[in-house]
Every structure is written in C-alpha cells, then in structure tokens.
Structures
1.
Amino acid sequence: MTDKTLHIVGGGMAGSEAAWQAARAGLDVVIHEMRPKVGTFAHQTGKLAEMVCSNSFRSDDDEQNAVGLLHWEMRQAGSLIMQSADRYRLPAGGALAVDREPFSQFVNDTLRALPNVTVTEDEVSSLPDSGHWIFATGPLTSPALGAAIQAETGAERLAFFDAIAPIVYSETIDMDVVWAQSRYDKGDTEDERRAYLNCPMTRDQYEAFIDALLAADKTEFREGETAGYFDGCLPIEVMAERGRETLRHGPMKPVGLTNAHKPDEKPYAVVQLRRDNALGTLYNMVGFQTKMKYGAQTEVFRMIPGLENATFARLGGIHRNTFMNSPTLLDGRMRLRSRPHVRFAGQVTGVEGYVESAAMGLLAGRMAVADMLCTDLSDVPVTTAMGALVHHISGGAEAKTFQPMNVNFGLFPPVEGLKAGRRGRRDRYKAYTDRAKADWQGWLSKAEAPAPA
Ligand SMILES: Cc1cc2nc3c(=O)[nH]c(=O)nc-3n(C[C@H](O)[C@H](O)[C@H](O)COP(=O)(O)OP(=O)(O)OC[C@H]3O[C@@H](n4cnc5c(N)ncnc54)[C@H](O)[C@@H]3O)c2cc1C
C-alpha cells in the first residue's frame, strides 16, 4: 500500500461509488466491508451495493424532479451505480426501478475486477490516526464503530434513529391563516421572535384531527429495528393513543401564542412549523414524527388549518438510522473537522436514500482524489442537486434540528423572477433543472475529471 491508497469503510451505495470514482482516477483503493463476516438486520448478502429494501431509485424525470436531476448529474459524472441501474432497469413508468440482484452483482464484479481495488472482509471499529479514509458505513453502522464515532464527536452528535417530522414547502402554506410568532415572543431579534409559523385549531378541528390520527394506517417496525427506540421522540399517533389531550399538552400546546389574524380568539391547539433551511423555503412540523403511512400523512396533515394545500418536501417517519450531526462535524469537503484525513459519505452523513447516498459517495471519492493528487477542485455549485445536498449537510441545514434529508427543490436557491405558488411550478422546476445542468457540466469540465471508462 502506498500513500496513494484510499481506504473506504463500507461497500454499500456510497462506498462502492466512491471506490469507483477514486479507482478510475488512478488511486489504489481498499474497500473494508464487514459483510458477510459481520451482518446487519437488513442486508442479506456479502455483495457490494446491496439494496436493503425497495428496488426503486424513484423518479427518473430530470426536468421536473430533483432526484431525477441527481440521476442525470451522476450519469454525467460516469457513476457506476447509475450504469448498473440503467443496465438492469425494470419497467416502472417514470420511475427508475432495478433488478436488485444483477444490479448489485454488476457493481460487485466491476469493482472487484479492477486491478487497483482490493476488497477486505473486515469490520473497522476505530477512527484512524493517519492515511486517507472515507467512512461510508450507512444507516446500520456497526455498534463498535458507532461508539468510536461518538467518542470522537460527542454522544449527542450521532443518532441511532431518525425521528423525522414532515417538511413542508413554505410557498404552499396559507399565510392568511397561519402567522409567524415564537412562543411568548422569545428571542433577541425580530427574526427570532417570528421564528415559528403557527397553525391554529378550534376545538372541533382538534377533535376531528385526533380521530383521523387514530384511524390512520400506520407502518410497523421491522424485527430488530426497535433496539434503543424512543427517547422523547414518540410518534404523534402514539401520543394520541395515550389520551386525546396529550398532544394539546405536548407539541400542539396553544400557550404563549396570539393569532395575529384573530387576536381575540384563543386557539384550542396550535401546530408549529419551524424554518428548516437558511433559504427559508422549507419548514418542519415541530414534534410531528410519525409512523403513519405516507398516503395517510398527506390526508391527515392537510386537515390542519393553513396546510390544506401543503405539499411536502418529505413526509415523516421513524427508522433505525445511524447518522451524524454533519452540519457541525463536517466541512464543505465532507472531512471530519477534527480529523481532516477522514471523510464521511452516504447515509451516515444525513442524506437519505440509495441515490442520495451514492451521490455523496461520488463527491467524497472525487474530493479524496483531489486531496491526494493535489489537484484543484472548486466547490460544487449549490444550484446543482449534488451541490444543494452537500451544502445542506455541511452547513445549510439547521444543526439543532438536523434530520436526514432527501434531495428536493427546497434545497436549491430560488431562481429569481419566476412565479411563486403551484401554478408556476412546472416552469420553476424546469428553470431549476436547466440551471443545475449547465452549472454541473461547468463544474465537471473544470474539475480534474477522471478519464471516461
Ligand atoms: C431497513 C432499511 C430499509 C431501507 N429502505 C430503503 C429504501 O427502500 N429505499 C432507499 O432509497 N433507501 C432505503 N434505506 C436507506 C438505505 O440504507 C440507504 O439509502 C443506502 O443503502 C445507504 O447507502 P450507504 O452506502 O450510506 O449505506 P449502505 O448501503 O448500508 O452501506 C454501508 C455498508 O457499510 C458496512 N459497514 C457498516 N459498518 C461497518 C464497519 N464498521 N466496518 C466495515 N463495514 C461496515 C455495511 O455492511 C454496509 O455494506 C433503508 C435503510 C434501512 C436500514
């Protein structure tokens, strides 16, 4: 092994893509993958890039959908994960669904056949003091490594569950009903005193909401998923089951708030939304983590006054998921601030999904190449899907409430001069994707891109 050896821990979606990008640029790569010696409750094989659950890469529409755009950007960058997905694509309408076994086999065989890639079956359980490393150990990072990361970063900076509250696009919130105010007007600045958006409910609306919550379809935990579950992150429907008033004394309490539209009417309950990104395009529903099925969530949440026409950047959920508080721990190049020779990539950095994880592997691989070969690599433009994601995890997101995120247009800086609201959506998304494609191509052509395969 030379000092041009890049060690990648975890041969999942992110690790495999990072290895491919680095190997194509000429680095020696060692992938440390603990499977099949050490298993997880979700993986079933010892192959690289195993899909643990659904076989979908979601929408492939690169003009109107942010994940479709991410596919496009990855294809342009010669992604191995996308090559395999395209090769083993199954009919699925506008979605990119793949035949999971040959998909994983192809990634596995392609990487193992490269003369400069070695795959070792070992569990890495500490953070190294030297060398060049990418940790891409995913949502099921082994407990020993999880403990080592916590020892480095502080226990509170590594979570083992995501308790995701739904996130709403701010432009779809009805501001004639909702008002901005922090509880008891707390805060030193006007911005802080108006940091929350409040959706008021009458008693009848609250009772109907509780009935709908109790009746809604829920998903169950998978076996082995619940170890260490819950610490102040009960799903709202579980709170409602404990008593009809529980939510009104918890996340929906109406105290310290005055309805700016109807100052004389005291709301019976209030749903609060808090800004979720610096741009102010996304708001999360405070304390609204849930195991309701996605269809049921949309239906139930649109009963909330002010959210009748809301569209969701992501819906809520609670899952086994190891992820770090990346906005405080990683720099813009995905390096651990406290050990810059160690990068993180994939779902453990707080992105969510096969595609997003592979995308962050692609970037981490290229960033490692630039560091190790001392080549220039400019920052990825935040106007691209890649750039929007990496910017979000490395500082754009609110660190205090950081939860894993799918790629979505709410992460992109707005294109000026376009119509807001639902009507202008098609034009707006097209403008986002056109801008992203031009900027991504510009970045790729400037970057010391590896030669095409
Ligand atoms: C139960 C479950 C269901 C999911 N369903 C979906 C879904 O339907 N769609 C979707 O898009 N996403 C889903 N996800 C999220 C999915 O895991 C990620 O999208 C994707 O796999 C993350 O890629 P990754 O490379 O970050 O992690 P992974 O693909 O999990 O790869 C991480 C790799 O690191 C290895 N590893 C862990 N610790 C160590 C260690 N200490 N030393 C060496 N190797 C180690 C693991 O064995 C694994 O191979 C699901 C996750 C879980 C847990």
2.
Amino acid sequence: MPVLGTGFFFGYSISPQTLTARSFAQARQNTQVAIPQSFIQELLSRVDVVDIVGRYVQLKKGGANFMGLCPFHGEKSPSFTVSPSKQFFHCFGCGKNGNAIGFLMEHAGMGFVEAVQDLANQVGLQVPQDDISPAERERQAQQKQKQATLTDVLEKAGDSYRKQLKTAQHAIDYLKKRGVSGEVCKRFGLGYAPAGWHGLASVFPEYDNPQLEESGLVIVSEEDKRRYDRFRDRLMFPIRNVKGECIGFGGRVFGDEKPKYLNSPETPVFHKGRELYGLFEARQALRDMGYALVTEGYMDVVALAQLGFANAVATLGTACTPDHVQKLFRFTEAVVFSFDGDGAGRRAARKALDAALPLATDTRSIKFLFLPAEHDPDSFIREFGSEAFARYVGDATPLSRFLIEAASDGCDLGQTEGRAHMASNARPLWSLLPDGVLKRQLLSEIAALAQLDSRDLSEIWAKEAARTAPARPRTAATPAHDAPPLGEQPPAWDAPPAWEHGGSWSDMGGLSAPAPDYPPSGYSQGGFSNHSAPQGAGQNAYGQSSGWRGNRQQGFGRDKKPWGRNKGSEWNPPPLGPRVTPGTRTDQAARLLMAHMEFMEELTHEDFDALTHSTEAHGALFRWLEAQFTESGPRSWAVLREQLKGLPQQPLAEKLMNSVHAQPEGELDELRVELRGVLNRILIEHIKQQITQTIQSMSTDPSATQRLRDLYARQQTLDQQMRNLPSSS
Ligand SMILES: [Zn+2]
C-alpha cells in the first residue's frame, strides 16, 4: 500500500455490470441458428425493456416514460428515454434507439443470437432451434454449464491473484516504475501469481479437480502426471469477455525472462482469435473518444489507460483476425491499429490489413499507426506527451493508402514490370473490400498508379477473377443456410462490375445514381411513434413494393417458351473502343419495355421494385408504364409516344428511344432473354446494395441478420440463374 497510495487494494469489487453479467448464460457466439420470428415476437412480449435497460442505466420515471443518462454518448442531463408501452428505448441526443434485443447488442456488445438467448434465459423460455437433435441440445446445455463453471473457477483465481498483489513488493515496485496508479490497477483487476509450483492449492483445496486443468490454470505433466500452476511469479492480467466475465489470464514476467508474456491456453471459454484484451474496460471510452486503438500488449493497454487513452485494446499474442475487427465495430466506427515501426510491426500490420479489408465499409474509418522504431505507445507518450500522441494518431495512415503501400512493397513503380507487379499484388487485397465508394475510388487510384485506364484494369481483373474463382456447383436450388457465414464474408463483389454487358462506369448505381430508398429496417429509422409494433426478422427485403398488383406471379420462367431456344442470340456487347456510354441497364430495360410493352407481363414484384429504385425519373416512367399496361394492355411505341406528350416522363422516354442505341431490334424470344438478363443484373446490383446497407445496420438492427441471410440466398439464386441463361454462358 505505501507505495501506491491509500485505498489501492481496499474495497476492490467487481462492477455491477460484471455481477449481473455473470448470471448470463454463455454465448454460443459463432453458431448459426435460425430463430423463428414468432419466437422473437413472443420473447419481446415477455421481457420488459425497462428492466433490461435498467440493469445498465439508472432510470427515473418521467411521465409515461423512463429517463436516464444515455449510455451511448456522454451527457450531463438525460435525453435517453425508455418507453414501457412501446417497449423501445430512444435517445434524443444521439438518436440511438431499439428494443430490448437491440439494447443488449448495442450496449452489452452481444451478438443477435446471444442477446436472444440471454433474454430467453431470463424469462425461462427455450430458444427453439430448427434441425437440432435432443442429443445436440443436451450437449449444448452441458457445454453451457461447463463454461459457467470455468468462468467461476477463473474468477476465483483472479480474486486470489489480486489479494496476492498486496504483499508482492517487487510486483508493486514494477507497477510503480511503469507509472500505473492504484486506480487503473483496480480497473483492470491486475494481480500477482506467486512463485512456487502449487500456489493455487491454497485457493482450490481440490487441486486435482479437472476444471483447474480445463481452465488452463493448472498444467498436468505428460511424463509423471504431476500437476502444477501455469502462472508463477508473474504480474497477472485478467482477460474479460465483453460481459465482464473472466475467461483467461495473461501473465508478464518482471525481468527479461522468456517468455515475457504467458497466456491462458485455448479453452471452452477462451479463444484468442476472438477476444481482445481491455475491450470490456474500454467500452465507455470507445464511445467517448470515438475510436479504438489496437495495440500489441497488455501492458500497452494498461499504460495507455493511465495516460488518458482508455480506448486502447490489445490482441492476445495473436495476429489480428476479422473476428477481432468485427467485434470492435460493434462498439465504434473507427479503429486505429498501432504497431511498432520495425519489420515485425509491418508484418503484423499486413495481417491486420487483411483482417480489416472485408469490413471496411464506407462509413467506417480504419487507420494504421506506425510508431518510431524505438518506441511503444507508452514510451512515446512519456517522451512527447499525450497531445503529440493524439496528433500522431490523427495522422495515421488510412487503410486505402496502406493498401497501396502494401501492394507496392518491393515494386519499382518507375518500371513497367514494377507497376504490373503492384497491380497484381493489389487485386487480392482490393477484392476483399466490400462494394462501395471506397472500393471504386481505390480502383481508380490503383489504375492511375499502374498507368492504366481504370476501365482497362477493371477488365483485366474481371477476367482474372473469373479465371481464379473456385468452380461453383451447378445444382439447382440452394438452401438458404448455405449462405456465407454472417459477418465473415463481405458482399461478394470479387470482380469489378461486368463491363461486357452494356455497363458503363457511371451506371453502377453507387456513384451517380441517387441512393435508393431502402426498405425500412424496422428499428433504425424514424422516431418512437413509428415503432409501436416492433418489426423483426424474416421479412424479405425485396418484394416489399407496395402498390403493385398482388396477383402477379413471382419468379420467372412462366412463359411458354422461356429460355429454351438459343438461336444464336447474342448480348451484343458494346464496342469497347470508342467509349460511347450505352446507357445504364435500367435504360436498356426501359427501352425493351417501351418497344415491347407486352414484356411488362414478365416483370415480377421484385423486378419492379428494383427498377423503380434506380432513379426518380426512371421510377416515374416505370410506374407510368405499369399503370398504362394494367389499364389497357400493351401498345406500340408510336401510341405510347403520343400518350406521353406533355407528361413529366416524356423527356426521358424520348431520350431513350431516340438515342444512338435506338430501339431494340431482334426476335421477340431473343429480346425476352435479353430483358431477363438485364433485369437479373439490376436485381443483383440492387441486392448487393441492400446487403451493404444491411451489414451496416447489423449492430443496431436485430432483424438484419435474418434479412442478410435472405439477401445472400436470393443473390445466390440469381447468380445461378444468370449462369443458366442461354447467352451468358
Ligand atoms: Zn445518446
């Protein structure tokens, strides 16, 4: 005590969150479980959002609602309300809102399934799981029980380590030397594992209990089966999951012995590739400071917290994984990876780049910080001060620049070969990015660096992607659960958008077209009043277009002779030489429909929805065409043209039908195939946009997971159909 100040070790207690969290059932985080929508509704009707939020936020009754200080943004007077009648929370300060499930995901950092399970446990409901055998359920229950027991064991060991620290003078001296205060020490629950082989025997009288081995605290010798403590004479850092439960330890030596850090092994509760040290402790700071600083060691995290950067976390002696990055993005939209300036640091940064690329959406910020070779964050701040460090962080290398640096590594950009090599290095990195503005801009940048037209580069890469893509099975129906694992896979956009079928750079929707009006996500938009009935998962995001006649047959292929004959029909790719913009796919669809209005019959709800979402002008034209068609059936272009006179739709219609691409000519069957192809590409593009949007809403919108699954499944079906269309093989 004397060295670290009064009150250092006294009154140490676990935070209220921790205590509550400890009664939670363990998450089965990466399990894919289809939870029926009816169950979600029932669950939400049984829990009270006021209780759930009240566990984390102090609430006071104010009128019909409860008020409190918003846990999502820093504030002094309450603008955070919880409505018992609507079962929603809403912050008038930062706009965060949602139901009980959303709150647990957002605030406690749980995944959707985890949050549902948590709530279900509280009200004694069993989460129904399709296709799960009683034996499997039993196994899962046992697993859950085991995990709860293991965290109890680890917690008990942690308590003991903390007590031991009080009397371990050399450990206290070390902390003092590193400038770690009692307060910070307490916040991170630091402890001391005494020297000696059986220190834990005094904590656990049954030293041969297999749980000690399973939790990684005790090692059993292979030779003589003797048992001994894993951590001896080390400074102990308890590793907590996002709920605050102790799931493992990191132990640091005091001198130069090796290994400097020793970690708990992988156990049923501890997975290095998924957990981040300090995340639980950093949660509030992540919101206050607006970004996460990812460092390389436990001591960095503690030292940074001491120096005013409580938003630091660390990987656990492993390379950064996409799971890590995704976990961080549940708490913040900006991540800065910090590395030592040496070769090992660069290599670690490359791995972090790979992990971060699939999650680098346009709304997120990812940066890379390289410290001067002789510094770690701690020493940097001690030498130059916190403000200098904050500036240094602000100037960190953005992901886009680091990607280009990484691709150019070892390439002489002054030489043609070097530029070609750079482009070839860049492709696999670039293709990991989710579709969006960043991705498209990067393509131009890489092309400029390679001294190519971005269209040429795009073509080359598209061919390359087609050549190297794994062959996909040509089976018919693909069940929905074959969709890519959520969160691990970005929307598939491995190749640049297809040029060869009448596309132009500006017609890809993302850059030039106004943002489509996405279907309401159920939680994230609007105020309280719109949400009296919580919506949930299970709604297809497509097929929601209202005002469309309900009796139209879904899907295609209803025609007598759908795509059967392939009489040499061709796509007539626009010539690549003279760069005349052939208009967008939507333009082409409009031309076909105006020239052959009977094709309106071919449109499904989904087609119509996608078409009307392209641009306002196109939307108005398609709606008008549909109305005409419904009223009086198909007419020729000459008649349509007369009827359009003076209408707002006229200029676009005239422009399309009088352009150099003129009116589509060819046999009806061929044109029908062409229309289907164009429509499918529009649909795929539309779905991709929705996928991007849905992934972004995943942290706040519990229904997003299911919607994403539906979207992936639909995309897969459409891709399949594209491959089976006669002329696109
Ligand atoms: Zn707020």
